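Q: My collaborator sent me two sequences in one message, no labels, and asked for predicted structures for both. Can we handle them in order? The first one she listed is below.
A: Yes, handling them in the order given. First sequence, followed by its C-alpha cells:
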Amino acid sequence: MKQAYFPSNSASTTRFSANRLLLAASILLFVSLSAAGATEIRVRLDRNPVQMNESFTLEYSAESSVDGEPDFHELEQNFEIVNQSHGSQMSINNGHYSRMLQWRLTLVPRRAGELGIPSVQFGRDRSEPVALLVESGSSGSGRMGAANTADLLVEVNASTRNPYVQSQLIYTVKVLRRVDFASADLSEPQLQDALIERLGDDKHYQATRDGLSYEIIERAYAVFPQKSGRLTIPPIHLEAQVLEGGGSRFGFFGAPQTRIERINSEAVELDVKPVPAAFSGKHWLPSEQLVLDDAWSQDLKQAKAGEPITRTLILRARGTSIGLLPELNSAPAGADAIRSYPDQPVLNEEKQSQGIVSVRQEKIVFVPEKAGEYHIPAIEIPWWNVKTGKLETARAPEQTLTVTGTGAAAQPAAPQQAQALPPVAAQTPEDAGAAAAVRQESDAVIWFPLAMLFGAGWIATLAGIAIRALRFRHRKSASASESQKSTPVLKGDVIHISDNAVDALKRACSGNDAPAARHAWQIWIGKQPDAERVPYLSGLAAELEQLDRCLYAKNDASWQGAEFWKAFESVHLQIKSAHKAAGRAKDELAPLHL
C-alpha cells in the first residue's frame, strides 16, 4: 500500500519560531528599557524625628526629567503644606553637563505619631515612601530643644482675673525668644463680649527665665468686659520663621534656611463681677481714679449784667471707657434771668501705658440779664472705685453768682465749636501769661507782611543794579560771543543761545517762565567746570527743587522767578570772584574749590 506523502513546510516553521522569539525579545527589551528609563527620585528630610507645631523641610530631587508634575495632595492628609518651591541647578564637571531638578516643601505635622511620608507620583514616576516620627514635644508654650530648654515662649497675663463689668483690665502678651526671626506673626486677643484697645508701642528688653537669658517683646491691651460671669480669652498664637544657625546657613537656591515654629499661649479665664448692690448712682461708672475740675472765666462775685461768663467742666476717669462718662452741666437757679449757650462736649481717650484715661469737657456761656444773686447748684457724680471696692463721689461745689449793673442790649455770640481736647487743667495764672503771649504774636503777624514788603523793595533795587551791570558786560562781549555760538536750544518760538544763557535766564525769571528758565539753566550749567558743586552755593539747590516741583507737578503750579534769580546772581558773583583770584580771563570759569 502506498502511503500518501505530505511535504513539511520547514522554512515556514522556522520563520514562525523566529518571529515568536523576536516578539518575546522585544517585549523583554521594552520592559527592561522602561525599567531603566524610570527616573530615580530621591527624598530627603532635614531632620527626623520632628516636633509638633514645628515645621520641617522635605526635598525631592532628580538628575533627569521626570514624567510629570508632582502630586502632593496625599501629603495633606497628615501635614500642612505651608510653602513649596521648585527649581533646578546646573553644573559642568570635566566637560560633562548635569542638571538637578529639585522640589522643596515646608510641612507642619497635623498630629503626633509615626506618620511617614507617602510615595508621591511624578506622572508615571514615583518616589519611595519615607518613615517619619512626629513627637508631641513639650506640654508648655515653648519648643523644647535637645537640652530640654525652651528657646521660644509666649506668656500672657491679666492684671486681674475678677474685674467688674465694664471696668478695665490690662492684658499683657510677652514673646520670649533665644533665636532670631526672619518674620513672625502674633495674633490679637479676641473676646466676644468685651471692648479691646491696644496700648502704645511694643516694649523690648532683656530678662531671665530659669537661668536663661531672653529677649522679650511685650505688648499690652486694655480690655473692658461688657457682661458679668465667666469669660475666656482664647490663647494667643505665634507663628515665627526661625533662622537656622543664627541665620549664617543658606539653603535652597541661596535663601536663608529657616524653620517655622508655632507657639500657643495659655487661655485666660475671667470671673467678671456684676454691678455691686452698694452702688447707688444713676449710671454705672467704674474707675481707678476720677477727678472733676470746675473753672470759671472770671470772679463770680464781680459779674456784670449783660457780660458773658464761661464755665468749663472737665471730667477725667482712669480705667474707664469714654462711653460711660455722664453729662456734667446743670442750669442755675433763676434760669429765666440768665441766658445760657452750651457748647458741644469734647470727648477724648488718652492711651497710656497704664491703661485708658477718658476725658469729657463741657463748656457753657452764661449771660445774666439783670443784677441779683443766682445760686448754681453743686454737681455730684457717683463712681465706683475698683481698687478699693467702694462708692465715691466726685463733686463740683455749689456756687453763688453775684451780678451788678443793668442788662446790656447786645446779644453775645454763641461759643465756637470746641476743638480737640488736649490734657486740660483748671485756669491758672500761667494761662493769662500764655494769652498775653498770643496777643503779642498776633501783633507780630501784622508787622511781618510790612517788613517783607520793605525787604522786597530793597532786594528789587539791588537786582536792578546787578541786571544793568550784566547787560553792560554782555554788550561788551557780544562780538566774541557771535563767533562762539553753540547749538541753539529751541523753546517754542524763542531760540536761546548757550553763550547768552545768563540773559535768557534773567528774562525767564522776570517773566516767571519756568520751562524757559530750566532750559537756560541747563545751557549755563553745562559750561561750568565742577558743575556738580554749583547748585549748593547760596541756597540755589532749594530754588532748583522748587522749579522742578512746579514743572512736574500734576496740577498747574505757579512759579515766581525772583527768588531763583536772586540765588543765581549770588552764585554767579562767587564764581566771578574765584576767576579773578585765580587770574583767569574774564570770559573763562575756573574750577570751584570751595
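Q: And the one she listed second?
A: Here it is, processed independently of the first:
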Amino acid sequence: MEKRKYVSIKPSYAIEDEAGKLTEYNYGDTISHLGHRLSMRRNPTYRENPNSTVFVSFQERTSLADGLRNALSMAQTHEFGGVLELSLNDNIAQRAQDILNVLVVKYIQAGLEDKNTQWRNSISFLNERLALINQELAVAKNDVAEFRSKNLISADASDNVQEIITRSSGLMQAEASISTELEVVNGVYNYIVNNKNLYELVPSTVGIPDASLSELIATHNGLIRERINKLQVGTEQDPIVQGLNVAIANSRQNLITNIRNLKQAIQTRLDAARKSLQANQVEAANMPLKELKLFNLEKEARVKDEITNFLLQKREEAELSVASNTSDARVLDPALNQGQVKPVRSQIILFSILIGLIIPTVLLIIFEIFNNTIGDRAEIEASTSAPIIGEIVYKQADDPLVVTPKSRSAISEQFRLVRTNLKYLSVDSPIKCVTSTSFMSGEGKSFFSINLAAAVSLVKERVLLIELDLRKPRVSRYLGFDNKVGLSNYLIGSETDLSKAILKVPGYNNFDMLPSGPTPPNPSELILSKKMEEAMAWIQANYDFVIIDTSPIGLVTDALLLDKFSDFTFFIVRHKYTYRSTLTFIEKIYEEQKFKNLGIVVNGIKTGAGENYGYGYGYGYGYGYGYGYGHYGNSKNSSGYYMEEERKKGFIARVLGIFGL
C-alpha cells in the first residue's frame, strides 16, 4: 500500500503519524517511520519556505521497479551495429539521467562479474589444493631434517647417490606433473559429479593441456551463462529456458564422458612414468640402507615441492586473468537530457483537430439517424404530390404581426409571395375564403393565418380573420383581444348581431378579426349548424377575403367540416418539427380529395449553419431568422405572445442541444 505523509521544511523537520501527532527530528538522524528506516538531509541548493510542506511518498519496491521498467526503452542505432541506445521517460530529467547512468554501470559490472566467475572458481579450487599440498610438504621436509639429524648424515652425499638423486629428480618431476594433471582432472570430475547445482559454472581446466576438454567446458559454461541471462527476464517455464536445461544436461554428460576418457589416458602416462621411476629406485635400492631411506624421504619432499610450485604458478595465471578481464560493453556517451518528449505539441494539435471534426460529425450522423422530422424541400416533394404554396423562415420576435405596411423583411416578403400565389391558383374562380390547419399543435398555423390576413389587407381588400379553433383559441390572445364575445355567442343564439363581435386590428385599415368567443361543449355540432351557414353567408357578403384559423386536423375534424365554406386549404408543416409520417397523411387526404383544394406551407425554416433547406421562388435571403411558433394547447410560458410549451425533447435532442445542434 502506498503511504503518504507531509513533512515540514524547517531547520528541523516534523513527521505526522497516523494519530496526527507531530514529532520533530534533526536532519541527518536515522528514524523509523511506517515500517521504513530513513534519513533526511537538506539540499543546500533548494530554497526553503518555512511555512511550506513537502509531500513524501513511500512506494512498494516492486511496483516502483515495474514503473521504471515500463518507462525504459532500448533500441539499436543501426540494424547490424553493436551500439545500443537506452532512453527513460520521466517527469524529472535529472532523476532519469541518474537512473540510466547507474543502470549502465551495473550492467558493465554484471558482465565483468559473469566473465570472472569461472576464474574465481578455478582460484578457489587451486587454493584448496595448495593448502593440502603445503601441509604434506611441511611434513615431508620435517621428516628429512629429523632423519639427517638422528643419523648424522651431512648434506653432501656420495657421487653415486647424487647421480641417482639427480636422475630420480627428473623422473619424479615428470611423475609429479602427470600426477598434478590427474589430480586436477579428478577435481574437476568430482566437482561436476558431486555438485548438486547442475547450473553452476565449471572451474577452468588450469594445468590440463587437453584442448578438447577446455572447449567442452567453455561451451558448457556458455550455456549456463545464457540460462542465467534468460532467467533474469523470464521464468523456469519459458520454452527457451527449458531448452537450455536439456542442452546443459547433455553437455554435462559429454563432459563426464570426456573427463573419464582423459583420466584413463593420463593414468596410462602416469603408469609409464612410475615404471621408469621404479627402475631408478631399484638401482637406488643397492645403496646403503640409511642413504636409501634418505633418498626416499627427499624424493617425497621434492615431489610435494614441485606440485606446490606448479599450483602456485597456475593460481597466479588465474589471478592475472581476473585482473586483466575487461567488459565487452563500454559507455559511448553518458545520459543526456533530451528535453520534453511528451506531450508532443504537434500531435496534440492534430489530435484536437481530429476530435473537433470527428465528434461533431458522429453527433450529426447520430442526429440524422434518429431524426424523424421534415428536412429539406426535396423530401417533402418526394413524399407528397400536394403543391408547396409558400415557405416561411424561422424568426424570433415579440410581435406576432411581422407583416406591416412598411415592413420589407424577408419573412414579410414571403407572406406577400403566398398572397400572390393565391391569385394564380384559380384564375377562373378567384379564391375568397381560405382555411389554415395543421396536423398537430405547435406548427404555426395561427401565426401564418394572422400574417397572411395582414398581407392581404395591404392590397386594400377587406379581410376578416375568423378564429374557428373553438376548443383552444389562440389568435385573439396573440392579437391582444378580449375573447368574451365572439362567434360561439352568435352560433348558440346569445348574440344576434354578428357585426358586434367583429374587432378591428389596430394599425390596419382593412384587417378585422372575429374571435371564437367562449369555448362551447359541442364545437363540431355548432360548425355543422344552420347558424354557421348564415354566419358565413353574411361574412362573405361583407368581406373581400376570409381566412379561417381552425383546429389541427390530426386532433379533430373541424377543418374537414369547414371545407364547404373554403375555396382553399393551407396545410401548415414546420421544418425540423413536423414528423415525416405527416407527409404520408397529407398525401392520403390529397389523393382522397378530402379538401377541394389543398396546398402546403413550410413554416419555421431554419437557415443557419448546418441547415440545407433551400427555399425558393426567387428569394435568396441570408437572414439568420428565429421564430417561436405557437402550440396547440395552454401556455406555460407567457413571456411573449406565442412562447408556448415546446414538444418535450428526447435525450438525443437534449444532448445535441448542448453542442448547439
